[in-house]
Write a structure and sequence with these properties.
The chain starts with 17 loop residues before the first helix and ends with a helix. It is built from 3 helices and no strands. The chain has one domain. It is mainly α. 40% of the residues lie in helices and 0% in strands.
Amino acid sequence: MNTNGGFALEKSMDEITVHQVMYAAEGKMPAVFDCSTSMQTCPSNKASTCAIWPFINRLQGKIDLFLDTLTLADILKK
């Protein structure tokens, strides 16, 4: 905590990804759906027979890749 009420970063903004910020804020990795990260996280245990699970999983992978490459510096550029 900063003495002026804000936060001080330990890394530069171009070294901190949005994925890291989301994980720090939520305590878990962001997911499109509960089951999107793996078949084991499917709440109904039906991912292996789910017709849309492969699509949801690929979508999650694309989102993860994007969030892993997007930095605070990227989103704060004017």
